[in-house]
Batch of 3 targets.
Target 1
Amino acid sequence: MKQSDFVHLHLHSEYSLLDGAIRIGDLVGKAVDYGMAAVAITDHGCMFGAMEFYDACMKGGIKPIIGAEVYVAPGSRLVKEQRTDTVTNHHLIILCQNMQGYRNLSRLVSTGFKDGFYYKPRIDKELLAEHGEGLIILSACLKGEIAYLCARNRIEDAAAVASWYAETFPDRFFVELQENSIPEQALANQRLMELAGSLSLPLVATNDCHYLERTDAHAHEVLLCIQTGKTMSDEHRMRMSADEFYFKSPAEMGAAFSYAPEAIANTVRIAEMCDLEFKNDRYLFPVFTPPVEKTLDEALEEEADKGLAERLVTIRAKNPVFTDTDEQVYRDRLRIELDCIRKMEFSGYFLIVADFIIWAKEQGIPVGPGRGSAAGSLVAYALRITDLDPLPYNLLFERFLNPERISMPDIDVDFCQDRRDEVIQYVAEKYGRDRVCQIITFGTMKARAVIRDVGRALNMPYGEVDKIAKLIPKDLGMTLEKALKVEPRLNEMAVADPGIRELLDVGLRLEGLARHASTHAAGVVVAPGVLEEF
């Protein structure tokens, strides 16, 4: 079997938080080693890693296939109640064929969080039918609805569900098989193949990768304990039923599915159906509406001239020797900056930033005086974006904006944390709630934190774990690998105690993984249209 004859289409990176243990850089490296032409990412209910994955694949010469393993409600996503006769959700793999598919998956995932969240971010079949263009569907693992029904011998129900997907996604729905040594999976596979044959549906082979190497299985079990707050000694803890959920080679996958070669071949067929390309060749600004019959450039020039005139009154009052010649220096500098801003098409950007800063000041919300390279702009000073006059300090506009180095102007804005939300609310109301959001931030398992997390999961005494964690230096950028080199006591303790050796080994495997997601305190995105369009 040639290396490129198989593509992994069901894979959980570290962004399947505390469930996936695959680092994106390592994933791409392994795919390159195996000679794979493409690889997919399908994190649980989210697309957190999509852009990082895309960029890494493009650099590695691998085709990126962006997807997600979504949670589908058994009925309406809006019904949020626990019933004893049914599950709260089923899994489903969705892959993006193209940019329209990416937008649709973005809509599905976002709606799952905003409207359908019940233990998990859920969608429903109504949404799938509405936003199905450009999407490829795989029936997922044993928690997929079709496999779930097959495993319980509800073949007619499974056939009805499979028929719905086949009709809703013509030539884009595949029945998924997995080989993982789980008895229930073997039974489900047999029935899934019979079902696919009776309905003339194509098969596809996946491995539901949660970690990169087979040897990572133990560390992944510890990771699941961290997620669920359990310990490895708990018999009822969540665990994988086998150590098969790793990034298998094409040869391993070919051997495992020797009885269904078409399922292997279809992985390449699906990869060839996917062609997603991001074109980041232009800046996307919110729509700022200037006064009637004025362009953005004209509006900016008028506001800057007016603002500078007001600033010059204050400057003259403070400096009795300020001359007309001095004033002309200011006006000449303003013309130079405005000309540069016009040529680089950033007039709207300045008007947008000035608008919400001036609004905040009018509401009595404390705003910083300006910092960074923006303090070198006289236009920013005239518009009251900054409160620092750049000329007495010979601050250079070119450090802020330079036509020879095309990049976004970077205006650092500081608002009082107590009333920052008011400014965000103002921006949301002005540009549209569906166009404004705060960005995400991820907490990661750093050196000391991962030792404490792993120690709890291994049920080690707190005092012992605390002692080891405190041996790790607090230096910036410290890692466990560095700590083991600079702190000999860590190695001595590991040699003397197998439990500590295990703690450090697992910690090394899990260190740096994303642990949780939260809302960034200050990063805000304002888009020219509905956010899911971008």
Target 2
Amino acid sequence: MQFNGDDGRSLWLDNLEIFDGLRNLESGCISVEDGKISFVGEKTGHQSPEPSKFDEIIDCSGLFALPGFVDSHLHLFSLAASNSGYDLSHASGTTRNTFQSILKMAKETFDKQEGWHRFYALDSFDLSISQYLDRHFLDELFPEDPVIIRFKSGHGALLNSLALRLIDVTETTDEPPGTTFIRDLEKGLLTGVILEGEELLGAKIPSIPIAQLMESLGDVLEDTSSKGITTLVDASQNNDVSKIEILSEFVSSRPLSPHIVMMPGMSDLSRFPREVGCYSDVYRKVAIGHVKIMLTASSGHIFPSEEDLLSSIRKAHSLGFPVAIHAVENECVSIAISALEKDFISGDRIEHASELFDKNIEDIAALGIQISTQPGLITENGDRYLQNAVDPSILYRLESLRMHGITIGFSSDAPFSPADPMGWISAATGRNVSGTGEILESSERISVPSALNMATYSGAVVSGVADRKGHLRQGMDADIVLLDMNPLTTEVSELFKISPVLTLSQGSSLYSQM
């Protein structure tokens, strides 16, 4: 097999097994012209075009075709930043001395960024580490430089004493709304842990140089393309006009990129219609998506109130935007549903929806709320879920949502979980916990076809791009992934081994191993 990948060439992909985003078509072929799909089906069909008329004919025997995967919720700038910083994900399970050695090595070998030591992806729930997560521990290692360690959860960070002073946080500083400064229970003094403080940190800590950030972002786009992802939805709460301008300039400078949707944050929403566009408009190759609204309980209390949440929803709706409400814990999900019952438009969705009771699911189905969730966390965090007090039967209820006809889109929440669609599909169908062999609520397993749908077509629906993405049919964008194995005939335990060999975006190659 050989694929030239020249832009604008008409393609005939022959001898494929095909899943079109909705159902299995079994064997057939796909033709691509002018970046669009011109035919999908059996090549002997009476409407089948003549293969010889195409610029390139590829024998795809043994390969499996499906629409490009949709990551309906990730954080591009955070992912690029974390990839340019020092990764602490490997520090889990280490002793205090070993963790100190890791930080010392990083201090000596990894360059500071704008004067700061920046670390990412530390598992703050790891009991072997969490017991000494305080600023004094960092002060011993970094007495003269500011340090920030961002947690893998995405909801907190640890700073040393100098870093706290530089962001103007002292023992008497008032907490910004929704943010919590964790204090020592015995002395009542700041530990250096800040929960839900990303707005504060972003405003006070010097930004990573834009050239370095964009170089890392280029690596991110290449990596996601190699995983078969052709649509990325940036769901960051602090997205503003300046960020969409930076992102659109970067994407416009590249010959080819995945399709990118950026959700506006509430704080800058009013500027979008005036300066860059409204929902579903495309600003210099970047589409404008839902309005992202945060509803959290991770700081110890729920923020914002339902009254304030409803006010934000109504503002977004008045400007023609559906909303995407971050709600992980059941209390937050219930409040999000209650607010949407008072003001709902088609396309409104809840992010994560990790804890659901039957009544929540019934209410979501009755209203038509869509869900973007991260099945990969079943595998990654399943051991912690099984150990804590949360009833595992309410976690990531995929089959129950599906049975109620609720539209579910899969996503990664990267950098807080890998952007790996075959990993999502494996987790959703097996629900196996990494490293233990235990299963997190087997009744919530879904079938492989359902998982493929949620990673493609349904992902496009919840992302507002299903008019041109997520479905292999005539007239749709030729966003196509070829896999090296057929997931419909592969054992569930082996699904994670399947890899893309070709990723096409509008008929042009984003990634090829052919």
Target 3
Amino acid sequence: HGESKEALVARCEQVTAMAAEFVQVASVPFTIDSADLWAIRKGLFPAVGAVRTTGTTVIIEDVAFPIERLAEGVAGLQALFDRFEYGEAIIFGHALEGNLHFVFTQGFDDPAQVARYGAFMDAVAELVAVRFGGSLKAEHGTGRNMAPYVELEWGSEGMALMRRIKALLDPDGLLNPGVIINDDPKAHLAHLKPMPASDAIVDPCIECGFCEAVCPSRTLSLSPRQRIVLYRELARRNRADEPSNQLAQLFDYQGIDTCAATGLCADRCPVGINTGSLIKKLRSEKYQRFVPIARWSADHFAGVTRAARGSLGLKAIAGKLLGDKALAGLVGGVRKLSGQRTPAWLPTLPGPSRYQWLQGEGSHDGSSERAVVYLPSCASRVFGQQEEAPSLPDVVQSLLNKAGCRVIVPQGIEGLCCGMPYDSKGMSEVAEAKRSELADALWQASEQGRWPVLLDTSPCVQRLLSGAFGKGLRVFEPSAFVLEHLLPHLELTPIDETVMLHITCSSRRMGLGDKMLAVARACAREVIVPEHIQCCGFAGDKGLMTPELNAAALASLAAQVPRDCRQGFSNSRTCEMGLSQHAGIPYHSILYLVDQAAR
């Protein structure tokens, strides 16, 4: 503590000088930047849990000692850890106030382990409340685990007074029954929650919940933590031969179908658990029978994309003949009859892309001019734009021309794909084959890595970079490409508008959120990044097949769009379709914004 920076530094120097007199096993310097220290402190609990024996549960308690007896109390707790053989236990917390947390792991599948746990808690209560006159609860509430010891700490008269107050306010015992006031001296040993082994991907999870804030399905179905809880229960029931059909059916939709599998949860998890990886693994089992169809579509990808454009063309014709309202009813009826197996009606679903691909355009002639390999994603090749906007390839061509770059389009582009559609369904073998095929095509088009490669869709870049190239390819999504390869050759005049910006989950995971924001701010008067939206929930085809996920993820978006805002930007074509629908304004690639500002 210090009332000024100077006073704080002086105290730190004083403590450091005193510590120098001792032999130090390790040393970490004082700092006034608390962000990293706070991250470490928050991560201690999950970190201990991650290395626990699979199948055990992590227990956390908080106690307080009189400050003058804090050192004795810590030593006493450590002695109890040794006595009851909790060698993995740690102590941390707000020590300057005498408030300590301690964490240990415990199995509940063996009566002997439960007995050890009960004896340890008895010893802790005696140490804290009786020997040192401390508190069995410091900052957190008294739960069922400490309920049997409340009278030990407060005495019979204090307990009787609490019972009288409880009876006055809650005569029927409806509020939190068994919490604080509990007549069962073994209440803390009943109804114990196990953490059974389920899958190595998620077994380290202690269900701390750090992941939940970034999950797009958290208000619709399940959060990552809840998916893990249900999956563990399914695993337990299967091992015990207990009925699980009803729960399995529930998990099929709540757990598997409505997961965006973006991996944002892994970034928030102190130990990097990616619940999406588990879901993809489960999808690989669920969709196993469709692998031959997927493999055929991958081998005939050019025809598949042509068929998709044709379907969008028919949709546009039907819309003109029947009207959008009638067409929406027809599509909805077919979807209902199919048991939700066909795509939903999406008002912002555009017509087909009309761009004509000139493959190998501007092939190298031996000069030293700058060139760029441009790979439009399959989404950009299939979907056109709304409201008569120019096509994304036209915008890219315009920008690159302004920057004096020649455009090279890979040969056989219609058949190229990063493999994302297959990877999201857990079909990793097919996905990897497409990724490798694309990497080879880009290697040739870039003249063995001589020219940078621009992909207009961020998730494709993340997918492409997820494997080892081994060839020195330089692959960029739009924002990073603009900053590194275009801005030195462009003059930007920010448009006099407020614009919305959606930073895709793939950009966040690649650490490019700041670059995307920097590009947008260089091109517009004001940029708004909506709060509490980490992922749009469109998730490839989820916006069409599970549209409620997209709606739940973007429920707060429209209210955050200012009245004078006319356009939004992102870097994923499918995300932009969902954003346009739920924001009420059109969203386009951030390259459109750069093109508007660039000369």
